[in-house]
């Protein structure tokens, strides 16, 4: 290879490094498994790096309001992204996923309304309804069943849906409401282990994304937003148990 060709190759490599940027993403806990897969695909496709922080929607929103330098916010609801747009802290709001709540009962494997009504358990885990939309949905399901008040002394609250899932699998709660997307496909189909409440028992969990004010100055953040809207990304998201638009 000639010296000129070597130099050209080196310059191309240096240019690629110089153009690579870091995108800081705040993502709701329920979406973290899907985000892990999207991260790998986007980084390979774009050459950019994603720095992902997962947590409850409420806590991430509070961090953003208090100046946390995230570029993109993937919420588990629509309300908080809407508020950020209204105060000019974000733009380009859209629904990237629609989630479902499920009752997971790994011990008795008798998930369903009857199991809840019989109250033959000590602890029922749900995400904190004040912080997590999946917790709000769980409260709505229990209210629809007329059981929310009766179960108050048995409910344990996870800070987010990830912690709620951990409560169940570590035995700190015998059963609980988690996101359908947290379960492996073969688990979702097991009668008794999982119960999917009727859609009319809770509001749809429409999850919105926004490009934050910091991200507007980062071309890579815009690239990620465009990727999230792509059919390739939507197919990956559906594979994790969500619906897309």
TrEMBL record:
GO molecular function, a single term: metal ion binding
A matching Pfam family: SBP_bac_11
GO BP terms, alphabetized: molybdate ion transport
Gene3D superfamilies recorded: Periplasmic binding protein-like II
Amino-acid positions noted as binding molybdate in the UniProt annotation, renumbered to this chain: 57, 161
Superkingdom of the organism of origin: Bacteria
InterPro entries listed in its UniProt record: AvModA-like_subst-bd, ModA, ModA/WtpA
Record's keyword terms, sorted: Metal-binding, Molybdenum, Signal
Coiled-coil regions, chain positions: none
Family statement: Belongs to the bacterial solute-binding protein ModA family.
Protein name in the entry: Molybdate ABC transporter substrate-binding protein
């Amino acid at each position: 290879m000639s010296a000129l060709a070597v130099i050209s190759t080196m310059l191309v490599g240096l240019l690629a490094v110089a153009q690579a940027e870091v995108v800081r993403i705040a993502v709701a806990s329920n979406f973290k498994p899907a985000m892990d897969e999207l991260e790998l695909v986007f980084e390979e496709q774009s050459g950019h790096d994603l720095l992902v922080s997962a947590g409850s929607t409420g806590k991430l929103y509070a961090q953003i309001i208090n100046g946390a330098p995230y570029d993109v916010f993937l919420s588990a609801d629509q309300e908080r992204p809407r508020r950020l747009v209204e105060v000019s802290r974000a733009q380009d709001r859209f629904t990237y996923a629609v989630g479902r709540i499920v009752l997971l009962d790994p011990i008795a494997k008798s998930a369903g309304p009857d199991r809840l009504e019989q109250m033959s358990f000590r602890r029922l885990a749900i995400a904190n309804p004040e912080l997590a939309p999946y917790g709000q949905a769980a409260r709505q399901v229990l209210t629809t069943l007329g059981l929310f008040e009766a179960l108050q002394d048995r409910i344990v609250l996870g800070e987010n849906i990830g912690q709620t899932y951990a409560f169940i699998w570590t035995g700190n709660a015998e059963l609980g409401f988690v996101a359908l997307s947290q379960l492996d496909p073969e688990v979702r189909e097991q009668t008794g282990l999982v119960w999917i409440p009727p859609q009319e028992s809770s509001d749809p969990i429409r999850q919105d994304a926004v490009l934050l004010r910091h991200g507007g100055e980062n071309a890579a953040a815009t690239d990620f937003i465009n990727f999230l809207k792509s059919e390739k990304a939507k197919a990956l998201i559906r594979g994790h148990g969500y619906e897309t638009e």
